[in-house]
Amino acid sequence: MALQQRIPTVEAADVSPVQTSASPAIAALNFAASFHRDAEACRNARDRELLYENYRDKILAIDTFAANVAAAFLPFLRVAASRRDSDAGRWEDFNRLARRGKATRDRASQHLQHQSGVIAAWGLECFQHYGWQALPLPLLRQLHDLAVLMPRWDDVVNLLNSKMLARHELRVLRGKNNALRVGEHSAASKVQDSRSPQLKKSTLVIGGSPIKKFGLKRDHYGMVVPSTISTSGSDNEQSDGDEDVDDQSDGDEDMNDQSEEDDDDISEKSDVNKDMNDQSDGDSDIDDYDISPPSPKRAKLSAAEPTHLSHASVSDGGSPSRTADSLPDHRIGTLPRQESEARADKTPPQPDAPPLLAPQARLSRSDGNQPIPIPIHMAAPTETQPSEAGGGNDSPPPRPPTLLQTLQQSYAADIRQLVHHLKQPHASDEVQRQRQLQLDWLDPQRWASVYAEPEHQLGGSSVASPSDADVWYLSSDSFHRYAEDGYIFRRPVVVKQQFQDSSMYDIAEYIDMLWQRFPEQQIEVQNSATGAFSLMSMKDYCLTATKVDLNSFDAITPISNATNLHRLARADEPVLSRLPRFRLLSTLADRVAGTVGRSRHLGQNDMGDHLAFNTLSFTGAHARPHVDALGGCWVRCLAGLQVWGFATNLDADDWERFQTDRCNWSPQGKGRLIVMEQDDVLFVPPGLRVIQVTFALEPCLMEGGLLWDECAIPEILDELLWNAKRPERRSEPNSFQLRAVVDALEKWFNEENCVYPSPPLAATALETGIQSAVTTVRQ
Hints:
single chain, alpha+beta, 3 domains, four-stranded antiparallel β-sheet, globular, JmjC domain-containing protein
């Protein structure tokens, strides 16, 4: 991919924003630099409001590059600018101009928009210092997304430093040669998505020591660089003020003092590290991660590089309470990329490198506290992990962690943060009651026991037999083999599949799509604090979502959950939805629709509306206990993290209590939890009677659909009959043509289209049972 040529250096003094230039691109960048300088000079919100209005009018007066600059400035100006009625016309003109700019698809305009956006947020000097003008378009777009998410350079520099330290640690300690080197600032902008957390300034202290003890320092703009630049091609990254900045980093050690919750969290993580001698190989932020043990040749440290970086160089940013000097943590979720904290413990010490301290030893030196066990209640006994080898060659190799242990290591702390928030007192009795109902699922954490196949790819199982597991984790190939053999699934399944469109779905873009497609419509939203549903205009919904912090519990609560959405993302469907045996429901829906061509009338039949859907949830969103009226479904996580809680092995008393309590039902210890990561596909088999809830650890976009299994028709009919007798237990309204679908099912079955289960039942017995069930459901 061709790189854009480097732009000429622009003097910062007295650059007119609307000055015509021989190059419209340079004029646009001058305009963005002027905006950054003026924004830095603003002293209060009123000054910024006037500044936004001033630059809005200037952009509207430009002839040449107005659309591109408007598109670049739109995320900054639309959030904090005034919306007075007298000014509404001007803002509408500006929004229209920005939409026109965003619609341009030529590479020159795209480059100009993203460059201008970055400069408007962080300044021209910083932009040119790190040579970001030479970035290819995809990386420049990601850098612009980061600038919109974190417009203050003081905030973003800590995030980039943390990423570089983590990757440098992999390169030095793990022998991963293609990992990022400290000081490679252009590559540091490769943020995978716009959901990156704001990390603490304590990331510049490694194991309690200043970074300069590891051969590192901060440059003029606060970025971590090597103290001694050994490469000849580096660009003057050490300015005259580097020493002052380096001295400032010495004081960062004082910022390591954490709250009591921080100490508990660190101690608990170290306890897990002790029980687990290996870590998960899934790291969404580090491409092509090599999980094989490093060879001595690759692991040997270079003399020109720092010899040791402790795994404590990256903070998890997940404490419920923070010091005044730490950055605010804008999200509850912790992505798998943060597992790099513990990967350093996985590497054996090299002969010429200082030995790594054990996690408990490091913690005891820093805070003097003993590790506190994680309060996790297992549904089934976990495997006992051997302690780390004492150093003899005859010691047995450490047992790899199970898949369940890997998930716990990654997300148990995030769930504890959510629990910490729910335990905070609230003035409203109703909110307090709803929080307690959520705590009944989350505290203590009762993780589902897991059977994994294949184990060498997904991780070990936590149970001895597949029949003992609460949930199965299967690769797409394994699921395909089970399905082709006619196996009838009796428990939930999480399918691990690789998708071509992975990481292509952004929450902000999805909200913008809702606004573009349905500006005059209403959207049904749920208040997670009270559980109440309400209708909201799409305009108000989108404006609220763009103005507030989507990772804040309290700010986003009124619109935290939108579950009644059509399938708008149109993501790639999982393999299971394309298997012939799972097409039964769509086949019957098409029979009911009765048309093979395009409809001459707008709208779909009600059954068709239920076959596919999207859900959009923000941090802390909670979907209350419910059952699906049609039984089977699949759900793919397109972006974010979601906790799925479910209860299957319930007795008659539990179901009677559910009929009475409905959405206020408490699992009373029978609920189980799993965490759905990006691209995980949850499959709830048709005929499985399950009560389910969801919790969003971070903004989360899901896509799914309903399906029936030809091999489980008796179970499906039994579930339909059970739901028909208890309409209050269903999550969907009874608006679909159930009678018509049952009639279509009977006709389809009589035409001998059914694929009998394995082992096959007697055809007459199966036919008799289905006919009897159809008659009962129809009544």
